[in-house]
Amino acid sequence: MSGAEAALPAEESEEESEVLEESPCGRWQKRREQVNQGNMPGIQSTFLAMDTEEGVEVVWNELHFTDKKAFKAHEEKIKTMFEQLVVVDHPNIVKLHKYWLDVKDSKARVIFITEYVSSGSLKQFLKKTKKNHKAMNARAWKRWCTQILSALSFLHSCDPPIIHGNLTSDTVFIQHNGLIKIGSVWHRVFANAIPDDLRSPIRIEREEQRNLHFFPPEYGHVADGTAVDIFSFGMCALEDFILGCLLLNPDKRPTAHNLLFHQVLFEVHSLKLLAAHCFINNQYLMPENVVEEKTKGLDLNMVMAEIRREGRPAVQWRYSEVSFLELDKFLEDVRNGIYPLMNFAATRPQLLPRVLSQPQEDPQKAKTPTPEPFDVETRKVVQMQCSMEMNEEKAQWHLTLLLTLEDKLHRQLSYDLLPTDSSKGLASELVHYGFIHEDDCEMLANFLENAFHKHQSPPL
Questions:
Q1: pTM (two decimals)
Q2: Would you call 138 exposed, middle or buried from its count of C-beta atoms within 10 A (0-12, 13-18, 19+)?
Q3: Looking at residues 183-200, what average pLDDT do you find?
Q4: I want to staple 430 with a disulfide (CB 3.0 to 4.6 A). Which of 12, 74, 192, 435 is the partner?
Q5: Nearest-angstrom CA–CA distance, 93 and 172
Q6: 300: burial class by Cβ within 10 Å (0-12, 13-18, 19+)?
Q7: For residue 9, what are the CA distances in angstroms to 5, 15, 364, 371, 424?
Q8: Distance (Å, whole) CA 414 – CA 202
Q9: Of the candidates 422, 437, 433, which has an alpha carbon nearest to the alpha carbon of residue 384?
Q10: 96: nearest Cα among 371, 378, 409, 333
């Protein structure tokens, strides 16, 4: 092989990594390399991109509209749709991070950034398993089904319900650590929210013959409901217990939440898993390396738990029998969503706007809403730390707040407290200015209130 020939792969790699375009904020950089994330319908172009803030790869998706005039007439509706898709957040659903509009000359684009799933699809995995003549691992299969149903249960419990509408073995991804991710969640949302006169560029995957077997017989004849996704799940699972998912009458199919209680999937969770979820849910109250710190000073011969038995020696477990490395990995898996507790979760509505399921009024008659002055924070806080020092010169408290978000981003905020400040007021301001998710407002307010009470002259 000549030197010129040997250099070709490197040159091709450099071309693929070339930055073609940047987001308006400069955070996202579009590359030349195109990717296929489950052949998602409606997306004309999908490119690999770099998140320069987090240093991870993401997907740059583009929706093209050739009729600029029609696009402008429905622009507010499209923006509202994407603003609400950004807040859909579940560990087993491919995350939509950000979107923006690009309107030039006679054409328009909607560009949105999604999580990059580098591992293969369920379809690819099943092909490899069949090729290698290996049987499906029953425990892994149960874990995958539970994660898919966990995601569907979340979508269907939204108000209004979000119907996936494109659940196939191409749009279910399996990460190397066993985490399941469902992609193409915005398929049905696009179909419902984007008006007819703008739908010409949208390719509807379900109309392709190769995937029609994933969709129920009522498709195209009656209005779709959540039962559509249950039928598709049954086709993906392909096991005896899912025969109920394939019933011709959509009203008789079980819900995703009910399927989590099926005897094939349901199991009483171990105390270890329940404790792990409790730990993760309250981790903001603890240091980031709490496991390492807590285990440093432990006497490994100390008895951790004991079962006393009459007339027989007690059964004891010592700290030396615990692998702290495995414990850290288990906590990370729980945090990532591999072991959801949806089996016990009550179905509570996740409030979303009507734009996701119902047609809007004529935008020519509707008033244009005042745009929000700040970006909405969609990431949750996983850890909080704060310190308060008295500034003797100003005779007031100085607050330093360190927040760790779920994507490991650290955010440090400083503030000189006024006598009129309250914990609830400060938390609400942080939501308003886009520093924290609105769901974290009450949690942060309580955290600050406890911190204030630890000092001699706290604000009320």
A1: 0.63
A2: exposed
A3: 69
A4: 435
A5: 9
A6: exposed
A7: 8, 10, 53, 47, 57
A8: 47
A9: 437
A10: 378
Please give the torsion angle defined by the CA atoms of residues 82, 86, 87 and 88, in that order, rounded to the nearest 10 degrees: 90
Distance CA 95, CA 114 (A): 6
Where is 60: in which H helix or E strand?
Answer: strand 56-65
Residue 238 Cα to chain centre, angstroms: 26
Q: Which amino acid is at 46?
A: T
What separation, in Å, do the N-terminal and C-terminal C-alpha atoms of the chain show? 76
Residues 302, 306, 308, 314, Cα dihedral to 10°: -60
Other CB atoms within a 10 A radius of the CB of residue 445 amount to 18
Handedness of CA 25, 27, 32, 35 (dihedral sign): negative
Helix (H, G, I), strand (E, B) or coil at 355: helix
Condensed to tens digits (0 to 9), the pLDDT of residues 195-206 reads 666 654 444 444
**Do residues 183 and 38 make contact, with C-beta atoms less than 8 angstroms apart?**
yes
Rounded CA separation 425/442 (Å): 10
Write out the two tokens for 30: 């579009």
Neighbour tally for 380: CB within 10 Å: 15
Q: How far apart are CA 240 and CA 157, in angstroms?
A: 26
Alpha-carbon span 107 to 103, nearest angstrom: 6
- The residues, ordered by sequence, that sit 6+ positions from 122 with a Cβ below 8 Å of its Cβ are 144, 169, 170, 172, 173, 174, 236
Length in residues, the chain: 460
Rg of the chain's alpha carbons, rounded to an integer?
A: 26
The H or E element containing residue 331 is helix 324-336
Q: Tokens 């850890």 identify what position?
A: 383
Identity at 416, one-letter amino acid code? D
Q: Do residues 232 and 171 make contact, with C-beta atoms less than 8 angstroms apart?
A: no
Query: Are 68 and 103 spatial neighbours (Cβ–Cβ below 8 Å)?
Result: yes
Can you read off the two tokens belonging to residue 67? 């009729």
- 172 contacts 235 by C-beta, under 8 angstroms: no
Digit-coded pLDDT (tens) for 219-261: 766 667 899 899 999 888 875 667 888 888 998 998 888 888 7
Which residue type is seen at 108? A
Q: Where are the beta strands (DSSP E) in 145-264?
A: 158-159, 172-174, 180-182
For strands 350-351 and 158-159, give the pairing: parallel
Sequence-ordered alpha helix ranges (H) in 90-226: 122-131, 138-156, 186-193
Amino acid in the structure at residue 86: V
What's the CA gap between 420 and 264, in Å, rounded? Answer: 57
DSSP bridge pairs for 204: none
